[in-house]
């Protein structure tokens, strides 16, 4: 795993290119290089991760994410460097509204090697959870967050918001929760899916959820529905969850050279259409204490120790 002195735009791009190639995905230099260059001063200290998903919507792309300190405004940088276009849609105002309302620990950025700049992550200080009561008061927040307050309250999530993800391409928002342990039990997982009209998980996913450390929901500005619930597991053996990922993802898992001995993240979700899929997050550059890994990992470990 590279030291800070070895991390620059060229080295990170090379690692992205090689890792994407394991999935037969060709990284576009014209797409990736401008994003890395825009944030190059932060790369030497960043946690950097690669992510691959097994569902059809993500096929043909490969994601990279990295952390940023709180003194860098990722949306302003993205606009100034032409990575995204200014918009009148509320998604363009959400980060600024969060900055005015909430204490922020750090940020993260997602980019696709084909699709380009995608998402900004907002990490609240560890242990300082935000509440839906505060967040739903923002004018730019999707109405679906307030519209599902009863659901979030029912499962003990309304005062446990840890991370917000803003996806500028799909115009969706992820809300990560420091969820109570009950949310990962089989009966609760089934009830949560049924409550919001999602198909029931498979037996494989029920078993997966039992080992989860946290969950997040995906919402948008166009409907009042929760699009999906996703669960996360950290593991040193991602193949333990990958009985049906397909040969390309299995090849990636077995051959990605970075962070071989470090923890991996695996996420599982069921879409409204019934598609069940997984995401693998492998680290090119890892810090054991990182907001990229979600604020509630340490707390979850403490509960299960």
UniProtKB/TrEMBL annotation:
Domain of life: Bacteria
InterPro entries: ABBA, Prenyltransferase_CloQ, PrenylTrfase-like_sf
MF terms in GO: prenyltransferase activity
Keyword Plastid: no
Keywords assigned by UniProt, alphabetized: Prenyltransferase, Transferase
Family per record: Belongs to the aromatic prenyltransferase family.
Protein name: Prenyltransferase
Species whose genome carries this gene: Actinacidiphila reveromycinica
């Amino acid at each position: 795993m590279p030291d800070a002195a070895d991390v620059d735009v060229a080295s990170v791009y090379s690692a992205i290119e090689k890792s994407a190639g394991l999935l037969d995905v060709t990284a576009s230099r014209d797409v990736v290089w401008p994003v890395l260059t825009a944030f190059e001063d932060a790369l030497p200290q960043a946690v950097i991760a690669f992510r691959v998903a097994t569902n059809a919507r993500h096929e043909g792309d490969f994601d990279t994410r990295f952390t940023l300190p709180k003194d860098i405004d990722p949306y302003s940088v993205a606009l100034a460097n032409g990575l995204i276009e200014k918009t009148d849609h509320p998604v363009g105002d959400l980060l600024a509204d969060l900055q005015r309302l909430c204490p922020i620990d750090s940020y993260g950025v997602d980019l696709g090697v084909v699709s380009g700049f995608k998402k900004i992550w907002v990490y609240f200080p560890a242990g300082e959870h935000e509440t839906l009561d505060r967040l739903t008061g923002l004018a730019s927040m999707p109405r679906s967050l307030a519209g599902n307050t009863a659901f979030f309250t029912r499962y003990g999530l309304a005062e446990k918001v840890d991370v917000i993800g803003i996806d500028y391409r799909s115009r969706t928002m992820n809300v990560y929760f420091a969820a109570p342990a009950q949310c990962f039990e089989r009966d609760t997982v089934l009830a949560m899916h049924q409550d919001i009209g999602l198909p029931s998980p498979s037996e494989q996913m029920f078993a997966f959820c039992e080992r989860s450390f946290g969950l997040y929901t995906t919402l948008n500005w166009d409907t009042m529905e929760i699009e999906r619930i996703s669960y996360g597991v950290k593991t040193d053996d991602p193949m333990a969850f990958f009985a049906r990922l397909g040969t390309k993802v299995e090849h990636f898992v077995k051959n990605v050279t970075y962070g071989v001995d470090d923890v991996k993240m695996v996420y599982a979700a069921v879409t409204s259409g019934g598609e069940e899929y997984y995401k693998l997050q492998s680290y090119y550059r890892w810090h054991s204490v990182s907001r990229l890994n979600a604020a509630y990992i340490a707390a979850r470990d403490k509960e299960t120790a």
